[in-house]
């Protein structure tokens, strides 16, 4: 069994080891329980430290779940990301993540995503990096 504990000391879940091959799979399951996507979760083992998403789960253990908050961004940082995105200096995927993380606190997710689409250069242009 894998036992996952919240910071409060309360057990969040006890799951069968054989149901989860990698840490990534377990985090996807935990997303439904804690409400945060896997990239905002860290699983820590007393003996192994912080587990990476591609680590294999091959023995029973107790895991501490740490939930990460978004870092706040200054208006200068937000403007810098927007300028870089408009100039095509970041890839579309990175542009989307950076922009949403900076803007979603001030606007709705859909409005921020719409802005990303509007400032994204055409994929056929040579300056768009894969």
From TrEMBL:
List the InterPro entries hit by this protein, alphabetically. Ubiquitin-like_domsf (IPR029071)
Read off the CDD domains from this record.
Ubl_ubiquitin_like (cd17039)
Q: Which domain of life is it from?
A: Eukaryota
Tell me the protein's name: Mask protein
Q: Whose protein is this, by species?
A: Symbiodinium necroappetens
Task: Name the gene that codes for it.
Answer: mask
